[in-house]
Here is the input.
Amino acid sequence: MQPQDLLSGLSNTITRDQFKGWDPFDGLNSRIFQQLPFKNRILELLWIQLFKKLPLNFRKHVLVEKGHNLKGLALLLSAHYLGSNSYFNRKQIDLIINLLLKFKSNDRTNYCWGYNFPWQARAFSVKPWEPNIIVSSFVAQAFLDAYEKERDEKFLMIAKSVSDFILNELLLYETSNEICFGYIPNKQARVHNANLMGSKLFAGLYSLTKNDNFRKIALKSAQYSINRQRQDGAWYYGELNHHRWVDNFHTGFNLVALKDIGNLTSELSFKENIDLGLKYHLDNHFEPDMTPKYYDNKRYPIDIHNFAQGLITFTVFKYKRLADKLFNKAVELMWDSQNQYFYYQKTKWYANKINYIRWGQAWMYYAISIYAK
Here is the structure.
């Protein structure tokens, strides 16, 4: 199957509901759950995990509506500008842009975005639309991609505003040569892919404006995560005790982010760290047939997110043979040719075929756009 066929099918699936969809983490949007007279952190964690794990989608029965996921929209917008061909028309692109502007966090001075659902993590709880660095950075990057093609100053202004949000509300730690950005305002969790997404945004702003302060911030932030890379090349997901795992797609995020930061700032000192991390990634996160493992020490679940990031990683690092094998494996294991979308996960015992707009379809549309180009 050709990448263009998949992109065409995905675009039809994505636009069928005007870019709305479900998410693995949206269980707390249930209007029935919200009416329960008692709720606590443990119950919310269990409720979210129930939605994530079960292969049957009962969201309609507990009144979880499809919604606009802003990170997913940002991925689609970036794919439109970065890919060689777009399968969205101008009207649809304008709709994406308008939705991103409509759903920005209105209680903040600067532009920023969050998820369209509340969620409970072990480290913190988050309200719907509460801004975070991941969604905000991806949306800002999409507007930078738009700016590079259209030269509309408003897009650059929005990305600069996001950088102010990150500096003003997410700066957790700073020394003379390190910066660490947090995930959520007023929360202390230090997560490496979140930190590096912020760093990449500042590197992109430097590339377009040549403002040296952006470069300094980008490199100090990258240095924080570089300094916490393990000797074997791996990164733990985060610095908290319950974040000490090494998974596939977050490792790919880190590696691609560092390469992009180096390219955008003309910084060469990260090369050895990238090479070491890439070797660990290749040796520990993929089976010989290119089936992606979820963790470095665990195969299951086979997750569409790992296919998407793997395609991006192998394309960025010019491993064409591996990218081709991974693309073919994604089609073999995860593509629903009748309904034109990618499955969420496969475990040792069953397949979870739920159609998730952000986790599966938007990420794969973006990844295949990069791979096809």
User: Anything to note?
Assistant: The chain has a mean pLDDT of 96. The first helix runs from residue 3 to 15.
